[in-house]
Specification:
By secondary structure, the chain is an alpha/beta fold. It contains five helices and four strands; from the N terminus they run βαβαβαβαα.
């Protein structure tokens, strides 16, 4: 067992779909080893999680209580939870200059297309959200099933980066 719960922050630009999906999935499957959070680099004023992302989570039987869009600035304060791993899930956020994260967590990039973007119909966007949820779930299953030796501070960054190709 890891010595403490690993805090993981998922970042996206608006914190409305991909990062929300990842937070909810990891909190469901991570047990006591993982605690997930999500945030955005540029959430819009009064930003809310994308309704299609919330519907996708509910359809999968995943709890959506407490999910909200928020700025990554909330996690750069001294009283914020200490992050062990920060994962960007969109290419835009990966290219931005992130705030200083207390504790200098490991970082990785797992790029996913925005399932809510594009000119498709609502059912097509809902299916895109479902496929993104499935892809995130597969990758996060690999993460939560890693041995503790792969989750030490020294190996966490490499481990998370290796999972980006899965």
């Amino acid at each position: 067992m890891t010595q403490h719960t690993l805090n993981v922050l998922f970042l996206c630009t608006h914190n409305s779909a991909r990062s929300i999906l990842a937070e909810a999935v990891l909190n469901r499957i991570g047990g006591e080893r993982f605690r997930a959070f999500s945030a955005g680099s540029q959430p819009r004023d009064l930003q809310q999680p994308n309704p299609l992302a919330i519907a996708t989570l509910k359809n999968a039987g995943i709890n959506t209580t407490g999910l909200r869009s928020k700025s990554w600035d909330e996690f750069a304060t001294p009283d914020a939870p200490h992050m062990d791993l920060v994962i960007t899930v969109c290419d835009n956020a990966a290219g931005e200059v992130c705030p200083y994260w207390p504790g200098q967590p490991a970082t990785a990039h797992w790029g996913y297309a925005d399932p809510s973007e594009g000119s498709g119909s609502e059912p097509q966007k809902l299916e895109a959200c479902r496929l993104t949820l499935h892809a995130l779930h597969r990758r996060l299953e690999l993460l939560v099933n890693l041995p503790d030796t792969s989750l030490t501070r020294l190996t966490l960054a490499k481990t998370a980066k290796d999972l980006s190709s899965k």
